[in-house]
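Much of our argument rests on the idea that a fold can be written as discrete symbols. Part of our work consisted of pairing the sequence of a single chain with a tokenised description of its backbone. The amino acid sequence and the backbone structure tokens for this protein are reproduced below.
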Amino acid sequence: MSKLVAVCGATGNQGGGVVAALQRLGGCTIRALTRNPDSVSSKKLAGPGVELVKADFEDPASLDAAFKGADAVFGVTDFWRACGGDAEREKKQGTNLVDAAKCQGVKHFVWSSLEDTRPVLAATRKPLQGTYTVPHFDAKHDIEEYARQQLGDAVTAVYPSVFMENLLPGAGMDPTKQPDGSIALFLPVGQSTLAWCATPDIGAVAAAVIKAGPGEWGGKTVGVAGEHATVQQVAETFSRAFGKKVAAVTPSADDWVQAVQGFGVPKSMAEDLGNMFLFYDTVPMTGLRPLDQTQALHPGAQGLEAFLTAHKDKYAQLFA
């Protein structure tokens, strides 16, 4: 029998990746949740095996209806846009998803999560919102803990890495041309090794977990990573891909926060990301995101050089 999968955030990067991957894998009927089924992005999802369903994460009744009869749910919340950078709002939306999954007897709840930074950062960094030192991480982890309390081993937590898309021009972590014509990559993580992933690969891994089911993945944590690399190694990858030297510069987190505000990044976002980098400069992120696990679930996961090569046209001005 076909498995019915409700996919939250179906028009977003992660949810859209899950929909596309489930379509490739086959054997599933997809219920794509969207706030506006009539939008252009929603209509692009419609097709054989995909049902568009209107749902609002702040409307529990709409979630109950959307999850009714579903075997599995992919849950994700959007801290930056849909939640307006409000961690408590994100937490409420996430707990609404969990409550609806429990009410409807969903057998497998696959949640896009992140680490709890507070045990590491609370001694040295002031909270930015409530008790949260990295709000867009900590709220997701609170939702994961709530899901495990309510749903037990029906939960699988998927942990994305730093998005490779953040390295694209204008995305905030991209290399920039300096006054002397050189090109530099500024990220405040010293010599620490970061895990990196392309966002479509999150959806592919989550879809593979959903297909395999809770018998194999329930109660577990699954990392998504296409490559492990330091800032220096990322800069070297840029140099190889484009044939021009890219230097790695690793300022302190506080200096980076001040610098990016000068380029128009809002203070709240800069501080959140600065604390995130400080966390990853303290706690290796690669342990939860082994490359072999991602490759086993999704052999086509992209490495950094493949990603940059695929997006080479976007860097034409920088490397002209």
